[in-house]
Queue: 2 jobs
Job 1
Amino acid sequence: MNKQYYNEEFQNIIQPILDNEEFKKTKEQIHHGISRFDHLVRVSYYSYLITRVLGLSYKETTRAALLHDFFLEETKDDSALKALQKHPYYALENAKKYYDLTDREEDIIKTHMFPVTFKPPRYLESWIVDIVDDIAGMYEKYKSSCNEAKAAVNFLIIFMINLIQK
Ligand SMILES: [Fe+2]
Ligand SMILES: [Fe+2]
């Protein structure tokens, strides 16, 4: 676990999923230029922080954010757009093999690509994971060429917390 994410409560929530042998395989897969595992932990951590501060269902959010891209294979004949639209369902199907998901957790995984997928999130927690995933994806894609990206991510997260709290 990257030290910058270390937080005992966060760690306790995610540990049962990190211990799953199938989930460990995400360490071998590259996503946005880093391992899918690192992407999932990053999205989960920032989603945890935001929903915890806002007094939302942070445990469900943390778990679902960790599972939002939990799949090992996409269908090869999917076009790029189809892959963007379908992978939340691959992740949901896969996550359900290993975990009993609540309605909120299912919604978070299923709608994390909105508006690329057409069905909007039903919960505030799902909107938060959707936005955190977008920002994390941008950061991961451009961080090697843009040193300010990290500061921008932090700024955006603080801005979002302030905005939602008003
Ligand atoms: Fe995704
Ligand atoms: Fe993602």
Job 2
Amino acid sequence: MKLFWCPRTRAVRAVWLLEEAGVDYEPVLINLGDPDSRDNEEFRKTSPMQKVPALQDGEARLAESGAIALYIADRYASGKLAPEIDDPARGEFLYWMFFTPAVVEPAMVEKFGNHPSNRGQHGWGDFDTMIEIFERGVEDGPWLLGEQFTAADCMVGSSAVFMRMFNILPDSAVLHAYADRCLERPAYQKALAFDAEHASVLETSTD
Ligand SMILES: N[C@@H](CCC(=O)N[C@@H](CS)C(=O)NCC(=O)O)C(=O)O
């Protein structure tokens, strides 16, 4: 299995997930700042938008961190990082799996760009509602599905950590405690250490 990744990007959530699943993989560095590095045929075939992360597993190729998270959890950690297909908890799990790409990330763009919110018209609602729902989702904790840590926590937890890094995570004790719980996980620590170890490659970028 090959993971196309670049330090300091969303690819860290795929690394975290793979570490949680305990799956062996070969990391293939795509330095996004280096056109030669991006011009990797396998990467171009695997990621139609030329974005990281992207995953090649035998004949299966996919990009999008959410798709990768779901693929790994179902294929290699079913019942552990994902409720099994006939488990009623699957509904809630899928909701939170999609919450990051469909709601959190567009709402972050709204916040960063100071775009006018329009809860009824925008598919993601608005930033403040996203935060309210996120808080409600983790207030009982420790994880989104209660006692069971799942791939949805890798998606949503990494979003909380990114929002904190970019200073847009509101002063919410619930959300900060959740982000801290995620960061305490050995697999996340391993992913962050791996990321930091390779971050210097970005300094040699050509643009
Ligand atoms: N929705 C995608 C977003 C991926 C994404 O935007 N990745 C950025 C790095 S964080 C990227 O590859 N940017 C390079 C580019 O667009 O040229 C996902 O969740 O995987």
